[in-house]
Fold this sequence. Notes:
By secondary structure, the chain is mainly alpha-helical.
Amino acid sequence: MCRNIKTLFNFDPPATDDEIQAAALQFVRKLSGFNAPSKANEQAFHQAVEDVAAVARNLLESLVTNAEPRNRETEQERARLRNAKRFGTGD
């Protein structure tokens, strides 16, 4: 799966439309192999992004869990620590 696609389910506050759109864009880029489509493929590419975003929104609204919502700041800090451990601090 794409590393740039982040988990969007069960966060407080919930995922925004911008986050869902960004995940859909990354997914379509991965599937198509295009970072930016040619003029000939532009309409199909953008339609696919819209379709994937709609399906993702529907999925996120349909999922249920008994788990407590995750905190965005806590998850970002965990990711930062994992990256520092994996790649070094850069100092």
